[in-house]
Design brief:
By secondary structure, the chain is α/β, with parallel strands linked by helices. The chain has 8 helices and 11 strands. The strands form 2 sheets. Strands 3-2-1-4-5-11-10 form a 7-stranded mixed β-sheet, with helices on both faces. Strands 6-7-8-9 form a 4-stranded antiparallel β-sheet. The longest helix has 14 residues. The radius of gyration is 18 Å and the shape is globular. The protein binds S-adenosylmethionine. S-adenosylmethionine binds next to loops.
């Protein structure tokens, strides 16, 4: 366990504060990323797509009318309910854990995993299981978009502190690389503008190198088709902001 009250951090973190802390991860960004996914994964109007860790559905909103069906899957009931407020009934929203996908095998043409929704588990086998589950629900030849931070950059984060304001809140963050556990840690403290404390929690995400990820992919029958460093389709380098891997399930 990884928090003061014994709950895993990813159960605590994705509640009503998430859209405030990550307000810059907005609909406009999501639209750009969905356009990237459509062209890169060749998504057509007959495709069934899983948005794995869909959050409050900012990608689904735009993707929904471009493909045959979108299923959104997430552990946070709060974020799924928020998604339900503006998504059409055509979209299926399912609550559950990435380690156990409740879908038949080989039922999706594509799986999307946007914005570092991987590496949340302390145990390596659990993170591996997430990739295995993706492969299991993909049709053969199905495509996988995996969007992660750049692990080379993540390992260089020594101690970065930031403070910003959003609406009536002040958000203080501190990020560092925990070498011993190979995790990127981020402590987040939220105050109201009158300096009243609201909430604090710690994010903790495993840092896997590209080679380690490649091995997980290949062990799960996923071939790496392309690797990008951002959503402008620039190639991945040590300085890239992101590591975006496009995988294809073996035929
Ligand atoms: C960084 S957010 C990304 C959300 C969304 N993809 C986006 O870009 O807005 C990570 C998401 O993963 C979900 N999540 C965390 N742990 C999970 C788990 N074990 N199983 C399923 N979803 C999980 C969270 O609830 C959250 O919505």
């Amino acid at each position: 366990m990884n928090s003061m009250d014994g709950q895993e951090w990813y159960i605590q973190a994705f509640d009503e504060w998430y859209p405030i802390v990550y307000q810059h991860r907005d609909d406009k960004e999501a639209q750009y990323q969905v356009d990237f996914a459509i062209s890169e994964l060749n998504l057509k109007d007959n495709c069934r797509v899983l948005d794995l860790c869909c959050g409050y559905g900012r990608h689904i909103k735009y993707l929904n009318n471009k493909v045959f069906q979108v299923v959104g899957y997430d552990l946070s009931l709060y974020l799924l309910n928020k998604a339900k407020e503006f998504l059409s009934n055509k979209v299926f929203l399912v609550k559950g854990d990435v380690r156990n996908l409740p879908f038949p095998s080989e039922c999706f043409d594509a799986v999307l995993n946007f914005f570092t929704s991987f590496g949340y588990f302390k145990e390596h086998k659990d993170n591996v299981q997430q990739i295995e589950q993706v492969s299991c629900v993909l049709k053969s030849g199905g495509r996988f978009l995996f969007d992660y931070f750049n692990p080379i950059q993540a390992k260089k984060i020594h101690d970065v502190k930031t403070e910003r304001e959003f609406k009536t809140y002040i958000i203080k963050e501190r990020r560092w690389y925990d070498k011993e556990n190979k995790e990127i840690k981020k402590s987040i403290c939220i105050y109201s503008k009158d300096r009243c404390f609201e909430k604090s929690y710690l994010e903790s995400v495993k840092v896997y190198t590209f080679d380690e990820l490649s091995e997980m992919f290949s062990r799960s029958q996923l071939q790496i088709k392309n690797v990008y460093g951002n959503y402008n389709k620039e190639k991945f380098t040590s300085d890239s902001p992101r590591l975006i891997i496009i995988g294809v399930k073996n035929e």
